[in-house]
Each structure stands twice: as C-alpha cells, then as structure tokens.
Design goal:
The complex is a heterotetramer. By secondary structure, chain A is mainly β. Chain A is built from three helices and ten strands. Helix content of chain A is 13%, strand content 37%. In chain A, the strands form two sheets. In chain A, strands 2, 4, 6, 7, 9 and 10 form a six-stranded mixed β-sheet that branches. Chain A has a three-stranded antiparallel β-sheet with strand order 3-5-8, with no helix packed on it. The radius of gyration of chain A is 18 Å and the shape is globular. By secondary structure, chain B is of the alpha+beta class. The radius of gyration of chain B is 15 Å and the shape is globular. Chain B has two domains: 2-75, Ubiquitin-like (UB roll), CATH 3.10.20; 84-148, Orthogonal Bundle (DNA polymerase, domain 1), CATH 1.10.150.120. Chain B has helices spanning 21-28, 84-91, 101-114, 120-126, 136-148, and strands spanning 2-6, 9-13, 47-50, 53-56, 69-71. Chain B has a five-stranded mixed β-sheet with strand order 2-1-5-3-4, sandwiched between helices. The mean pLDDT of chain B is 97. Chain B contains five helices and five strands, in the order E-E-H-E-E-E-H-H-H-H. Chain C is mostly beta strands. Chain C is built from no helices and eight strands. Chain D folds into four domains: 1-30, no CATH class; 32-193, 2-Layer Sandwich (Aldehyde Oxidoreductase, domain 4); 216-288 and 348-425, Aldehyde Oxidoreductase, domain 4, CATH 3.30.365; 295-340 and 437-725, Aldehyde Oxidoreductase, domain 4, CATH 3.30.365. Chain D is built from 19 helices and 28 strands. Chain D is globular. In chain D, 60% of the residues are buried. The model of chain D is unreliable at 1-36 (pLDDT under 50). The chains are: A mainly beta, B alpha+beta, C mainly beta, D alpha+beta. Chains in contact: A-C, A-D, B-D, C-D. The interface between A and C is large, with 53 and 53 residues. Strand 8 of chain A pairs antiparallel with strand 6 (72-78) of chain C.
C-alpha cells in the first residue's frame, strides 16, 4: 500500500459478528493433516485436460531466507475479452505442508490477467502456477525457489 | 589536533581527546589490523604497543598517548622481514578465523621483549587474549618457537 | 491499523484498467505452529476474498495457509461506471470483514 | 603459495592486497553475466570451478565460506587433486551469489554450516577439477594433433607420453576454455590421492599475521558512512519513540533512522561518533508482554515438561516405562543446559549501498545465498539488480548462517540514505543482546536395572526449546523437531551408540520467547552431556567401570566403539593416572562422524579444576587435512569448555542480562588443556569436522570431575556451583 495519495479508504467491520458466514467446508479443511499431494490436487483442478507450458509468467525471488513472506506475481498472456480470457489462476507448491496456496478467479472484466500476493514457502521447492482459460485450456509456469534456512536443517 | 607517533611516523588527528586510541587507529589513520572485539579491555583484539608495552587500545583515550611511540600490527615487521612472532605464527599456522590474532601477536611480541624465554607459567599469566576459535595450543607452540628463534 | 486497507483509484476513465490492492490484518495462523507449551495452534485463516463492482463479482480469491500473515492481494479490473467497489474477506471461526470504495468514472 | 617464506617479498605485498583489491573491483565494477567464461581479470575459466591465468596461477572458486575452519583450503585440495595442478600455484576466490543466480547455481549450495562444507560438496567440486583437467589435456592434444589418451597431466604440466613433449596449464587454458566440458568424468580412487589427505598449509594465513586481512568490519568504501544500532532488548518488542533532536547536533552525526519496527540506528562520519550518539539517544521501547519473562519463569515451564504426559518421540524400542516400573533398581537424574551466545570475535556487521536500481551488500556470512535473499527482500529489488560480496568472517559458529538480521538492517539503513555506502557495525553489547541463542533445555533420565545389574530400560525426557518450531514451523514432522534428538537418534548422522532393550527418548516441546539459533554443534552439546554423564551414573549404580559398562551396550555399534576404545587406550584407561589426576570418558556420533574423548583433570580445593589433557578420537570417514582437523578439535574444545565452565545467557525482564566478555567469559590460554587427536578415518562415508568433537569435551570433563570429587554437577555453567577452571 505504498501509494499513499491514492489510498483513501480505511475500513474496519465488525469481523466476528458475521459468524453465519462460516462455510461448512472451512471447518473440515481446518483439521486437514499436512500432506502434500500436489499432483492429485492438480488433477482435481484440471480434470482430464492437458496442461500446456507457456502463456503464464510466475514471478518469485530465486532465493528467500525463511519463506515467511515471499512476494508472488502471476500474469497470463490473454486478450481478456468475453470470448477469450483467463477464468482462474491457481498457485501450488510441491513441498509445503499442503499444496494449495491460492486460487484467483477472474474474468474479462479484469482487463489484464495479473495478480500479486505474499505467500509462505516451507522449503526449497518448485512453485507452480496454472491458468484456466475460457476455452477450457490450461497453461502453466513453474519456478524453483531456494529457502536458504532449509540448508541449515538438512538431515538434522 | 593531537600529535601521534605511530609505526615510526608522525600523524596529526582531529578528534575528541577522549576518543579511544583504537578508533583513532582504525578510523582516522586507516590501520584496520587492530580490531574491535569488546570495547572494555576484556578480549585483547585491540592490543597495540605503547613504547613497546602491550596495551588494549579500546580503553586508552587518545589524549593519553601523546609523546609515546605507538606500534600496531602493521608496524611490527621490520620492513620486509616478518617479526619472529609473525614468523612463528606462520610456521605453526596459528590463526583460524584470525580476527583476534593481531592482538594476540602484539601481546606475545611484548611478552618476548620483557621475557625472551617465557615459561608456560609466564605465558599463562601474561597472554589473556580471547580467541573464540580456540587456537591456544598453536599459540603456545608458536611462542616457544619464537623464543628459540 | 484498521483491519482492512484497500487501494482503489478515486477516479478513472471509462475502460481504463485499474489496479486494486488490498491488505487485511490477520495472522493467517497455519495450523502447523506450536505454542510455548508445544501444543498445536489451531488453524485460523482467511479463506476467501470477494470483490464486487456495483454488486457484480469481478474477482474472487480462495486462500490457504500458505498465504502470508496480513494477506496482501493485488489484481485489476476495468473501470466501467461510477459506483462502489466492495470487498469481503471471510474465513475460519466466522471471520468476516468488509470494506468498500467509491469510484468516479468519467 | 610460498606462505612459508619469512620475508616480505614483493609478492607478499602485491598478492596480499590484490586478493582484497580484486574482490572489491569485481564487486564494484565488473558485471558478471550468464555464460561468461572469463574471470574478472580476463583469464579464461576452464570450468566454473577453475580459472587458469597465463602465468599458470590456478584460481579455484570456493562457494562455501571460510571462517577459520579451513574449508577454503580443504575444498581447494579437492579441486586441485583432480585437476592435477601444482599446489603451490593455487589461489582461491569466492563467486558471488548474484553470479550464482545468473548462472543457475553452477557452484551449488553456498551454505556453510552443519559441518557440511566439504562432505556435501566433495563429489561435485572434484568433478569440476577433473573436468577441467580433461579439457586442458584435450586442448594440448589438439594443439599437438595427437590423441588425448596419449597425454597426461601432473603438477600443472601436460605431457605427451610418446614424444615427451610438454606444455603447461597456463599455455592451453585459453583453448581449453572453448572446449565443451565432458558429460562425465571418473574420479580418482582415494588411495591415489596426493593432495587430499595431506596436511598442506592453509591458503589464508599470511595476511592474518600482518593486519592486511580485511574483515568485513574493516571494510572501507569511498564516501562510506558508519552506523551502529540498538534493537529493542526485549525480544518481540518495538520502538515506541526516540528523540533524534537530542543527538542531531553531535559531531559527525548524519542521520538517526528507525530500522523496521524494532530498532534505531545512528549514522555518522565515524563509528565512534555513531556509537557515542546512539548511547546518548533517548529511546522508548514498547516492550510488550515478554518483558515479564525471566530465567526462573522459563525454568518453571521447562521443569513442568519433564513429567508432562505428552511428548514427541525421537527414539523408541521395547517398553521403557514398563521396564522402569518393574525395575529392581532405578536411577534418576535431572540436568539443565542454558542459553548461549555465539560471541564471534568480530561483532555482527554489514555494509550496504542502495540506489533505486541497485543494491550491493558486503557482509561476513556463512551463506552468501541467504545474505543475498535478505538483500532482495529488504531492498525490494530483483535479483539482477542486487549483489552480495562475501568478506572474510571474524568467526561464524552458526550465528552468520541461518539468520541475516544484520544484513537486513544494513540494507534498511542504506535505503534511507540512497547512494551512500553505510557500514553497520554492532557493539559487543548489541551482539550479546541480539543473539540467536543456543536453545535452553532440561532433561530427566531414568534408568532401570534388573536384579543382575543389567540395564533393562532407559527413558530420556528432554524438555525445552525447539529451533525448528521457532524458525521453520512448517517443517516440523507433525509437531516433532527431529533436530532435538541429535546424538540420540535411532539412525543416521546422529545415531545413538547404545543398545538398550527398552528405550524411550522423547521431547516435551517448550518454546520460550528468546530466539533460538544454531550454535556450533547445535543440540549435540547438551544431549551429549545428558546421555554421557548419565551413562557414568548408571555405571556407578551398577558398580561397573564406565568404559566396560558402555562397551557392553555398544555391541551393535562398532564404529562408535572403535573411537571410544581408541581414546581409552591412548589415555591409559584402566591404568593408574598420575597422582591427583582423574579421568572421564564420552562418545557420540555427530554430523556423521564418530567421536570420543577421555579427559584428565585434577581438582584442588574442591572447586578449582585443571583440565590437563583431552585425548580425542574422530572417525570422519575421510580426512582431507589432518593439520586442520587437529585444530578444529582443539578449537571445538575451547568453544565447548568455555560454555561448560563460564557461559550462560540469563533472562531478566524479557531481555538477556549479559552484556560483554566481562560477564560472558571465554577460556584463556592458561586454561587450555593439551589435546591429543586420534584421526582414524575408516572410509566409505563422509563425516563433518568443525562441530562433532565439541560435544564430547564437556561430558568427559564432568565424568572426570565426578571421579575426582564424587560430585555430579547437573546444571551449567559450572561457575554457578563455584567451580572454576584454572
């Protein structure tokens, strides 16, 4: 939020008041045992479709110290029209306790298929971004990130 | 302006009189062989000679050394010839990280000036520098070798 | 710091792609950390961010424990008309926070 | 190297300063992009590991950090062995992490910790040397138009055997650098090694004797300013306010800056001015809840863990609890081990220069890649706009490996003064207050004997702080921190050396707020004291000799036993010691090496301990340089025994009480025992050297103290019991 001049809205709502909003699946997820089954999760996301390399650009630093706060960007080449746009971008990891990081759902109204977030990486590993396009095709990019702290702990 | 005689050269420095000699040596004169380790005269990394005697320069105000001959590690060798302590240190491969060794060498050079053939007890009583890498057995061997040189 | 900070341009031209940045204060407790007494700290995360533009959803994110504390999410949308861009974060333990910003398009 | 030349030759001055000068020149001037095959001085790079200059000088690239442990020389020996070069022509240089990123990590991991510098990289660095040799030979053969198979290399000379023609590496290096590296190369059989295994002289000694060696704290860049810093002394606390106006007019002061949420720094012309101003600067801290914590409150939490029902199991066989319940005789003891600071001789420091499109950092680091990672994060710039230059370390011991808080600080300060290089140097007091401390633990041990005095069960309950829980909680194994069981693990690098019919070793995790870190040896330090002192307690309870008692339990651990037997034999265990001298034993497997020690001490006045001699054996698989291994053994004992006798970091009002070497002392030469090293590499595996032996000194001395006095000391440091080392 560096653009101080453009930031003109601070919002705080009574967070806990809306207890009704708890979806039943969240409670189930909350107790999920750590297990990274990235290939299975990807398969569930894309079904029987092929995943093609290309179109997606995943931006992560090549090295991070502890992985607690890692800036992430994903952009996808797309005209972002009603006829041809990115429907979703999924980010996954191969060695975090759970593979899912985030899924971003967008459409033609986004204008540009580009998202940013800050993520956690538990270990030196490959991060994968998969884009689902409106024509049903899937495209992906992956990046290897070294968590330098992991090197201190190998086989301890 | 304070007038200093350091490694045989005359130097003038413009510092507060209570500035520790260590920081005058390191920051004003650019002689960084003398190290900062504790600032409270405990570790000996900052040892230099004042008129040949070892002192811990972190605890000596620069105003107290005018008129004295200061020798730092950079001034220990005689021109191109290593001091016998340096030579012994080389032969015995004393340093590990080496950060404390300039101070150690200066302390030992002063000891050998006072006691050319120090006993182990003399060494124990005089050399109280801290070395966290723990090269003490090589230090002791090298002192005896230097004493024989 | 309020719970949520959003960064939406106050004005835009019709058809302009605007960048929206959001930050919400939340520990995103992963469910993998341990307390001082070695007990597991239960998971407590924001699981979803929804952005609507005059009531129509234009962006949605599903979040997992691998999103860092104080989730920062940035995305874009096309300025189509004046009105309100609204945000709702929901998550574990009934968490729900909303924020909105007015935008003038013209 | 000519490093045994006592005269200050011209080379002395030129090479001595050139080593530093070229490093800096590389840092300041020379972009080093992908695909480049020339070193900074234009000499051809044969492989990423080997640059050969026309004068036959061999520059070997070293990715790991030299911090006194000798890894620079050891790794160079590895490359030189396969390269077949003239060892006297070898010099070294550090590639930078930025080059590593640009060249897809061609030099592998930079991390220098866990005693892994050599054992993790020996294979690929030797291959780097072997590939270069193959290419040099091929280049010569092509020039002579003869088959490469008819040529061989030795001592930097290539010979065409049939004709006897010769050339040198320097003459063919340019051509060799254009040859495609071989896909695979064969490595020498260890029995043919000529340089590995020899006690060759270190490559980095001379400059350390004359004041020429530039440590990072000595760095000077044009236009550089100096800074020093205070971070909230209560861990987790923040800066509430500070009154910069109070010091703004002081001589030399350029700026007072807040650094993150937690620290304040003063930037001045000189460091002494910065320190004087920071001492005078009023700072108000928001100390937070942790200000209530004390050593006593931490000890209470840990004590409760000793009997807590829930614990993570690290090693288990049979049913220890049942064996203890049904024992004819039980032995029980509780031990405790304190927080420790690394106290490297050179305090934490880093120099940074930031502009909107470039950030450069000069720092002492055990892991250049980690320093680079925090530089990227703190600067906010991409990898191709950042660079880190490793400058010689004044000690590491684990403080400069995993945590680069001091680099982050330096970048954050430099960001507030764009374009100006700023050197941040901590005071010793800051270094004591802002450590990443050896974690605190307690341990309860219960041994069970049957009526025949056979050990039937053992329960070792560790209660205390997990490093992993603090720094990488996601990597815990369902809550369990495997590193907690170093030295008592069921298998692997830290395998427990005893067979006990019913065994339970578990850990009740208790995590105080003090930030833990990796301190030379990590958790083997206290685990060795716990288990090896308790073994002596068990032997005593069984009325058996401590060596014989151990031997009976070590039938399935021949390598553990071999080092124990070696020290017992050399020390004369079982034979009378000199009058007043008492012996103690300990053994452990640590960092994949088998280590043992026998200490000989005497005690006067009941509390003045003289450690006369420690016989130490290590089996590290392969011994690359025995001279350096001996020095690591002696040095590790200084580190371990300083802690045993004199060191602890206590907590009061949430902060560390010790401030400097006056209240956190370290061994002096007068206290140093004679160290006799038995280096007995048995081959077939690679173990570490820098850390393993640290753990056996303390229990060996404690067991000897019991032999001398009949007293078991179970909490540390010994100074708290009025015991001093003389």
């Amino acid at each position: 939020m560096q653009r101080g001049s453009r930031r003109r809205f601070l919002a705080a709502a009574g967070g806990l008041a809306a207890a009704v909003a708890l979806p039943s699946t969240a409670a189930a997820q909350a107790t999920r045992t750590p297990f990274n089954d990235m290939p299975d999760v990807i398969r569930r996301l894309v079904g029987s479709a092929q995943i093609n390399p290309g179109k997606v650009k995943l931006g992560l630093p090549p090295l991070v110290e502890n992985g607690h706060l890692v800036p992430l960007t994903v952009s996808v080449e797309s005209p972002m029209t009603e006829a041809a746009h990115v429907k979703a971008i999924h980010v996954l990891t191969e060695k975090n306790p759970l593979p899912e990081v985030a899924s971003f759902h967008l459409g033609a109204r986004a204008g540009r298929a580009s998202v940013a977030a800050r993520i956690r990486l538990a270990d030196t590993q490959t991060v994968v971004a998969i884009a689902e396009l409106s024509d049903g095709s899937f495209w992906s990019d992956s990046t290897h990130v070294i968590v330098t702290l992991a090197a201190c702990l190998e086989e301890l | 302006m304070i007038q200093l005689n350091i490694n045989g050269k005359s130097e003038q420095v413009d510092v507060e009189p209570n500035t520790p000699l260590l920081w005058v040596i390191r920051e004003q004169l650019g002689l960084t062989g003398t190290k900062y380790g504790c600032g409270v005269a405990q570790c000996g990394s900052c040892t230099v000679h004042l008129d040949g005697a070892a002192v811990r320069s972190c605890a000596v105000p620069v105003s107290a050394v005018t008129g004295k001959k200061i020798t730092t590690i950079e001034g220990l060798a005689a021109g191109n010839v290593l001091h016998k302590v340096q030579k012994a240190w080389l032969d015995h491969e004393v340093p590990q990280c080496g950060y404390c060794q300039a101070g150690m060498i200066m302390a030992v050079a002063s000891l050998l000036r006072d006691k050319p053939k120090p006993t182990d007890a003399d060494i124990d009583a005089t050399i109280t520098n801290i070395c966290r890498c723990g090269t003490f057995n090589q230090v002791r061997e090298a002192i005896h070798a230097a004493a024989k040189a | 710091m309020a719970d949520a900070r959003i960064d939406v341009p106050a004005t835009a031209k019709p058809g302009e792609i605007i960048e929206i940045r959001t930050l919400v204060r939340h520990p995103m407790e992963t469910g993998f950390r341990r307390t001082q007494l070695g007990a597991l700290v239960p998971r407590d995360i924001i699981t979803r961010l929804v952005c609507t533009y005059n009531g129509i959803e234009v962006f949605r994110a599903e979040l997992h424990p691998a999103i860092a504390a104080n989730p920062f999410i940035a995305f874009s949308t096309i300025a189509v008309e004046s009105g309100t861009i609204a945000f709702t974060w929901t998550g574990d333990n009934g968490y729900s926070v909303t924020a909105s910003a007015a935008i003038t398009v013209g | 190297m000519n490093s045994d030349n006592p005269n200050l030759s011209r080379r002395f001055f030129i090479i001595g300063s050139a080593a530093v000068g070229s490093g800096l020149a590389l840092g300041l001037n020379i972009p080093f992009g992908p695909g480049i095959v020339r070193a900074a001085d234009g000499s051809p790079e044969v492989t990423a590991w080997v640059v050969i200059r026309p004068d036959d000088t061999v520059v070997i690239r070293i990715a790991r950090s030299e911090m006194g442990q000798g890894t620079l020389t050891g790794l160079a020996q590895m490359v030189a062995e396969e390269l077949e070069c003239d060892w006297s022509k070898v010099t070294t240089e550090y590639p930078t992490p930025g080059q590593s990123v640009a060249r897809k990590r061609v030099w592998g991991n930079f991390s220098t910790g866990g005693s892994r510098g050599i054992r993790d990289s020996h294979d690929y660095v030797r291959r780097g040397g072997a590939a270069a040799r193959t290419m040099l030979i091929q280049a010569a053969a092509e020039a002579w138009r003869v088959p490469a198979a008819e040529c061989s290399a030795a001592n930097s000379v290539i010979t065409h055997q049939p004709s006897g023609r010769t050339t040198t590496f320097g003459k063919v290096a340019e051509a060799a650098s254009r040859i495609t590296p071989p896909k695979d190369v064969a490595l020498k059989d260890p029995k043919d090694w000529k340089i590995i295994g020899k006690p060759v002289r270190r490559l980095d000694t001379l400059d350390k004797l004359t004041g020429k060696q530039v440590y990072c704290a000595d760095l000077k860049l044009p236009g550089m300013l100096n800074a020093t810093i205070k971070e909230c002394p209560v861990f987790g606390g923040k800066v509430k306010s500070f009154d910069a106006a109070k010091v703004a007019g002081m001589k030399g002061v350029k700026k007072v800056v807040q650094v993150g949420d937690t620290a304040v720094a003063v930037v001045a012309d000189t460091w002494w001015q910065a320190k004087t101003a920071l001492d005078a600067l009023p700072i108000v801290w928001d100390e937070g809840e942790n200000a209530k914590v004390s050593s006593a409150s931490i000890a209470e939490i840990l004590k409760a863990g000793l009997d807590a029902p829930q614990a993570f199991i690290g090693n288990q066989n049979g049913d220890a609890k049942a064996a203890i319940a049904g024992a004819a005789k039980k032995v029980e003891a509780v031990y405790a081990y304190p927080y420790l600071n690394h106290a490297t001789m050179e305090p934490m420091n880093a120099t940074a220069r930031y502009t909107a499109d470039r950030c450069e950092v000069w720092c002492p680091t055990q892991n250049g890649e980690a320093a680079f990672a925090v530089t990227l994060a703190a600067s906010g710039l991409p990898a191709d706009k950042c660079e880190v230059y490793k400058i010689h370390l004044g000690g590491g011991f684990g403080r400069r490996g995993a945590f680069h808080d001091y680099v982050t600080q330096a970048v954050r300060i430099a960001k507030q003064m764009p374009g100006i290089p700023v050197k941040l140097l901590w005071t010793r007091e800051e270094d004591m207050a802002q450590g990443r401390y050896h974690p605190v633990t307690q341990c309860k041990l219960v041994g069970a004997f049957d009526a025949g005095n056979n050990l039937t069960g053992l329960h070792m309950r560790i209660s205390g702080q997990s490093i992993l829980a603090a720094v990488r909680p996601q990597a815990l194994q369902n809550g369990r921190d495997p590193a907690q069981f170093q030295g008592v693990a069921p298998s692997g690098e830290f395998e427990f050396g005893y067979g006990v019919p019913n065994l339970l070793i578990d850990h009740a995790m208790r995590n105080p707020h003090v930030p833990p870190g990796f301190w030379r040896g990590v958790n083997i330090n206290q685990n060795a004291i716990y288990i090896e002192c308790f073994m002596d307690e068990l032997a005593q309870a069984a009325g058996q000799d401590p060596l014989e008692f151990r031997r009976k339990l070590m039938g399935k651990h021949p390598k553990h036993l071999a080092v124990l037997n070696a020290v017992a034999e050399k020390a004369g265990w079982g034979k009378p010691a000199p009058q007043g001298v008492f012996r103690g034993l300990a053994q452990m497997k640590a960092f994949n090496s088998f280590v043992a020690a026998c200490a000989e001490i005497s005690v006067s006045g009941g509390n003045k301990v003289t450690v006369h001699r420690i016989v130490c054996a290590t089996d590290p698989g392969y011994a690359v340089n025995r001279a350096q291994i001996e020095r690591q053994i002696g040095g590790s004992f200084v580190y371990g025994l300083s802690a045993l006798f004199e060191q602890e970091c206590t907590v009061k009002n949430g902060r560390i009480e010790q401030q400097n070497f006056n209240d956190y002392s370290s061994m002096r030469i007068a206290q140093m025992p004679k160290v006799e090293a038995i280096i007995m590499p048995s081959g077939g595996f690679w173990g570490g050297v820098g850390e393993p032996t640290i753990c056996v000194a303390a229990p060996a001395v404690l067991n000897a103290y019991f032999a001398a006095t009949g007293k078991r000391i179970r909490s540390f440091p010994l100074k708290n019991h009025g015991i001093t080392m003389v």
